[in-house]
Amino acid sequence: MNALICGINGQDGSYLAKLLLEKGYIVWGTSRDAQASSLNNLQALDIVNQVKVISMAPNDFRSVLTTMDQSDPDEIYYLSGQSSVGLSFEQPAETLESIVTGVLNLLEVIRLRKKSVKLYNAGSSECFGDTGEIPANELTPFYPRSPYAVAKASAHWLVTNYRESYGLYACNGILFNHESPLRPKRFVTQKIIQGARRIAAGSDERLILGRLNIKRDWGWAPEYVEAMWRMLQLETPEDLVIATGQTYSLEEFVATAFKLHGLDWKRYVDTSEMFFRPTDILISKANANKAKTVIQWQAQNTMPDVIRLMSVFSETKT
Fold first, then answer.
1. In sequence order, what are the residues at sequence separation of 6 or more whose Cβ sits closer than 8 angstroms to the Cβ of residue 22?
2. Which residues share a beta bridge with 29?
């Protein structure tokens, strides 16, 4: 079985590659420039020599076609594209092109090649916008509040349209926040984990954050890639919400991270409007019951577990 992971060196792509290798897949992965990329996440998981990494520009139809012909996959996981909500406000055009055009090119290549192949597209809970106190499920309307969310919503409907219009096996995983030690340092969760560790080790720095009253559903990334794989094992494609079903405020996240080191977060953390987004989601709640029923998947780790696991990894690297 051949699998093609677009964006293989990202957090999800790396964990997914490890999972698929363990299941006996031949794993191909794409990077915009395979020769120049550090592939640091694949190296961290000690699998860099077990995958076939090739260059692909998702916004270039010819590049996508060439990659498909070379790898000839049975399953495709599109995890590529600009992945930061905050950065999307600064780079909206690049964000939309890398996500929407990339998905469109893949769908078109699959349609034209006429070989049976299954496509998983990485959707996002950001598409729902602010859920309020009502957990979002697969029937909840989208209300994107950032260029990133607009791009993900557009890609979602492209996948749905091609599935219904051309009979392709294509599905969207609507994933809520999920973290791991492979998260880039620009993400707030990693910023908090690393900041708490340094302060506990004696740093006199102040940790500067944005809004602490936002609420999110945080899960453990290695579990979420298992859900991706399970979605492509269904006989009929389904779009599914993937989440823990438990929501915490960022203040609770910060408090838990510092408490792990025996510290009172209020002594070390400040907030600044510099980190406020033009439009921010205050509450993001999820109902992942359908995933439990359809693919027998349920998150085992919630926010406190995620912090502990990320912090343990940080300690082993010092």
1. none
2. 5, 53
Q: From the candidates 124, 146, 154, 284, give the one annotated as an active-site residue.
A: 124
| 136, β-bridge pairs | 286
Instruction: Enter the pTM of the model.
Output: 0.94
Could you give the C-alpha distances from 215 to 36, 189, 211, 265, 301, in angstroms and in order? 38, 13, 10, 18, 17
Which of the following is catalytic: 126, 179, 223, 251?
126
Give me the residue spans of the domains in the chain. 2-179+220-245+287-294, 188-215+247-286+302-316
Q: Please tell me the CATH superfamily of domain 2-179+220-245+287-294, with its number.
A: NAD(P)-binding Rossmann-like Domain (3.40.50.720)
Q: What is the full DSSP assignment across 144-209?
A: --SHHHHHHHHHHHHHHHHHHHH--EEEEEEE--EE-TTS-TTSHHHHHHHHHHHHHTT----EEE
**Separation CA 294–CA 120 (nearest Å):** 16
Residue of 148, 162, 169, 224 marked catalytic = 148
How far does the chain reach from its first CA to its final CA, in angstroms? Answer: 39
124 assigned to active site: yes
Query: Which of helix, strand or coil describes residue 295?
Result: coil
- Residue 226 annotated in active site: no
Q: What is the pLDDT along the chain (318 residues), one digit of tens a residue?
A: 999 999 999 999 999 999 999 999 999 999 877 676 779 999 999 999 999 999 999 999 999 999 999 999 999 999 998 877 878 888 889 999 999 999 999 999 999 998 999 999 999 999 999 999 999 999 999 999 999 999 999 999 999 999 999 999 999 999 999 999 998 888 899 999 999 999 999 999 999 999 999 999 999 999 999 999 999 999 999 999 999 999 999 999 999 999 999 999 999 999 888 777 777 889 999 999 999 999 999 999 999 999 999 988 755 443
Active site residue 143: no
188-215+247-286+302-316: CATH class: alpha beta
